[in-house]
Amino acid sequence: MTDVKITSKDGSGSFAGYLAKPKSTPAPGIVVIQEIFGVNKVMQDICDWLAGEGYLACCPDLFWRLEPGVQLTDQTEEEWQQAFGYMQRFDVDKGVEDLQATADFLRNQNTCTGKVGSIGYCLGGKLAFMMATRTDADANVSYYGVGLDALLGEAGSIKNPLLLHIASEDEFFPAEGREKVQTELADHPQVTMHVYEGNNHAFAREGGKHYDPEAAETANSRTLAFLKSNLS
Description:
The chain is an alpha/beta fold. It has one domain (2-231): Alpha/Beta hydrolase fold, catalytic domain (Rossmann fold, 3-Layer(aba) Sandwich), CATH 3.40.50.1820. It has helices at residues 41-52, 77-89, 92-107, 123-134, 175-185, 213-231, and strands at 2-7, 14-20, 27-33, 56-60, 112-121, 139-143, 162-167, 191-196. Strand 7, helix 5 (175-185) and strand 8 (191-196) form a beta-alpha-beta unit.
């Protein structure tokens, strides 16, 4: 597990990424996309988990243009307010560019097979959807992505498999928007959706307020099966 430097596509600088390597390489790559709390222990643990499952996993610092090295938790109101502040100022289009740069970085490693997917949570769940519509990632997974209804106009650009984990009681994604996503993507040949009834936003965030171990295990098992099917 190490920190790496990734060059931005617009030439404005470089940003850090937390990289976790599997025991056996070459391996498929995974771009792990942060929540609004930065590349904190939760994200690092996810990279380590994926490395343990045989993937080369990298979580890039997407807030580097605002403030490099953000690592907040979800345990205090002050940190929540800081996190919302970063999210409000975050340029999602530049974020997707940085994610593509991370995917390119992984593909160029001799420890990577050349296949690269993404997994995103919360804000990262939205960005994983955008990875599916705007980048060449081979497979993408979105956990409780927010605001996906506003991105449905891009759905025609989804050429590679996309897995959506949707919380039925997501406090940050109103029911009307969630239902629109489910209705409009129901017949999309590249999209698989699972709704987790009775679960709130971030049900898979270990240690979080709405963490549901059973739902998280189900979602993670589905994710691993999806990745194996599409990145092997």
